[in-house]
Amino acid sequence: MKAGAPARLAALRAAMVKHNANPNYRHADSWRDMRYGNLTSPRGLTQGTNGGKAIWYTHDGPAFAREHDAGDVIRMRHEGYYTDAHGDNIAVGIVAYIGKSRWLAGYRWTDNDERVYFAELHDSAEDAARMADEHARVFAEAEREYCERGEAARALQDRIDETRERVRELCALRNNPGFPHAREELRETLDTLRDALNERAADHNDFV
């Protein structure tokens, strides 16, 4: 910049006033926060952890003015990773420039428009894009496995409910001479029910 320090300082202070007048932007505490233009993120960016690593996340759309999908930065053969068995939603790596030649890597999820940014800083957009793609892959794999377990748990619960209903029917029929095999079938059905309940307790109890 050709302008002297007083002019630059005045410009930064004016930018801070304009920035803080917008209710959609995070508050700038001083003109220093405006130097790298990295406070244009909407309200709602929240700090958390993921696998012990510090992250920030939001459901309010892009949190940084200069944010791109990883596929817009480096060449990739896919547009994202499926997060469910039916291919309804994907996780996409994202790259955000935060100023001073630093980039963040993260991912966005089409299911609920969640965006997650990891705290690690990257020196180039390409490095951030490669890490972002890996973050998206890891998240999608875990989410897909969770969804598959949930579907298996619901299918198992359906079998349990059906078996219980058959037990009730057989209990009503076991003393009826018109159904001589009801007692034997009842014993077998109870065994089937016990096996299913044991399977649920061991593998799926947290889903039902």
Can I get a quick summary?
With 208 residues, the chain is an alpha+beta fold. The protein folds into 2 domains: 44-146, no CATH class; 147-204.
Low-confidence stretches: 1-6, 34-43
Helix-strand topology string: HEEEEEEEHH
Integer count of domains: 2
Distance between the termini: 62 Å
The protein's oligomeric status is single chain
Overall pLDDT score:
81
User: What's the total count of β strands?
Assistant: 7
Helix content: 40-55%
Helix/strand structural class: alpha+beta
| Sheet having the most strands | 7 strands, antiparallel
Q: In what range is the share of β-strand residues?
A: 15-25%
Number of helices: 3
What gross morphology would you assign? elongated
Radius of gyration: 28 Å
How is this fold's topology laid out?
Blueprint: H1 5-20, E1 46-50, E2 53-58, E3 67-69, E4 81-82, E5 90-99, E6 102-109, E7 114-122, H2 125-173, H3 182-204
Antiparallel strand pairs: 1-2, 2-7, 3-5, 4-5, 5-6, 6-7
Task: Tell me about this structure.
By secondary structure, this protein is an alpha+beta fold. It folds into two domains: 44-146, no CATH class; 147-204. It has three helices and seven strands; from the N terminus they run αβββββββαα. The chain has helices spanning 5-20, 125-173, 182-204, and strands at 46-50, 53-58, 67-69, 81-82, 90-99, 102-109, 114-122. Strands 1, 2, 3, 4, 5, 6 and 7 form a seven-stranded antiparallel sheet that branches. A hairpin with a 2-residue loop joins strand 1 and strand 2. Helix 2 (125-173) packs antiparallel against helix 3 (182-204). The longest helix is centred in the last third of the chain and has 49 residues, at 125-173.
